[in-house]
Amino acid sequence: QSALTQPPSASGTPGQRVTISCSGSNSNIGSNTVNWYQQLPGTAPKLLIYSNNQRPSGVPDRFSGSKSGTSASLAISGLQSEDEADYYCAAWDDSLNGRELFGGGTKLTVL
Amino acid sequence: QVQLQESGPGLVKPSETLSLTCSVSGGSMTSYFWTWIRQPPGKGLEWIGYIYYTGSTNYNPSLKSRVTISVDTSRNQFSLKLSSVTAADTAVYYCARTMAGKVHYYYYHMDVWGKGTTVTVSS
């Protein structure tokens, strides 16, 4: 069981806006920044959002991130078929000696 | 443009040690953290640990007793050793360049990933 909780699945139709949630605790999301990774089928994960709401160069502005308290969200607007992928949230956790935690992942299906 | 490439045996016997190397090209290892992550078949991502270019390390508590990560900046490589492997260690192993630090909060994000290498533990 992951320490960061995501819904296992999400779906939307082309052009729609979808959001994926990520819930944690005071020792991770509540204290540190949240990142989102996109994993297309059969490929390595790719950094999609870092430091809660920053997009790396080349990531379309259709992708946005937010954080409030011990929860975070990834929003995808203008959904496209190529957005069908697994999405993972991640955050540093201060417990023990510190460690990076991932959410369990959300499989996004574009209907 | 920085690129990472994992290499190592694709098959390891139970109770033996898994050894992988990540080769870094197109950039320096200086000032970065370097992370190993794994993904069992059909499952999510698991953080294994990191090494700073100076050699300081931090490991996942659940793997700490079996993991060693080392760095050789002269060869632009860092390595993973995981001892006493079992079938549960079967996974795709990724290496990643990592930006990390602490302001009032920790930031830690992996901005460049290798393509991954599949390791199967089986006799």
How would you describe this structure to a colleague?
The complex is a heterodimer of chains A (111) and B (123). Chain A is an all-beta fold. Chain A has strands at residues 9-12, 18-23, 34-39, 46-49, 63-68, 71-76, 85-93, 99-102, 106-110. In chain A, the strands form two sheets. In chain A, strands 1, 3, 4, 7, 8 and 9 form a six-stranded mixed sheet that branches. Chain A has a three-stranded antiparallel sheet with strand order 2-6-5, with no helix packed on it. The mean pLDDT of chain A is 96. Chain B has 123 residues and is mainly beta. Chain B contains no helices and eleven strands. In chain B, strands 2, 4, 5, 6, 9, 10 and 11 form a seven-stranded mixed sheet that branches. Chain B has a four-stranded antiparallel sheet with strand order 1-3-8-7, with no helix packed on it. Chain A binds chain B through residues 2, 31-33, 35, 37, 43-47, 50-51, 56, 88, 90-92, 94, 96-105, and chain B through 35, 37, 44-47, 50, 58, 60-61, 94, 99-100, 105-111, 113-116.
Question: How do you describe this structure in short?
Answer:
The complex is a heterodimer of chains A (111) and B (123). Chain A is an all-beta fold.
Provide key terms for this protein.
heterodimer; A: 111 residues; 6-stranded mixed β-sheet; 3-stranded antiparallel β-sheet; 0% helix; globular; B: mainly beta; 7-stranded mixed β-sheet; 4-stranded antiparallel β-sheet; 11 strands
Write the layout of secondary structure elements.
The complex is a heterodimer of chains A (about 110) and B (about 120).
Chain A: E1 9-12, E2 18-23, E3 34-39, E4 46-49, E5 63-68, E6 71-76, E7 85-93, E8 99-102, E9 106-110
Parallel strand pairs in A: 1-9
Antiparallel strand pairs in A: 2-6, 3-4, 3-7, 5-6, 7-8, 7-9
Chain B: E1 3-7, E2 11-12, E3 18-25, E4 33-39, E5 46-52, E6 57-59, E7 67-72, E8 77-82, E9 91-102, E10 106-113, E11 117-121
Parallel strand pairs in B: 2-11
Antiparallel strand pairs in B: 1-3, 3-8, 4-5, 4-9, 5-6, 7-8, 9-10, 9-11
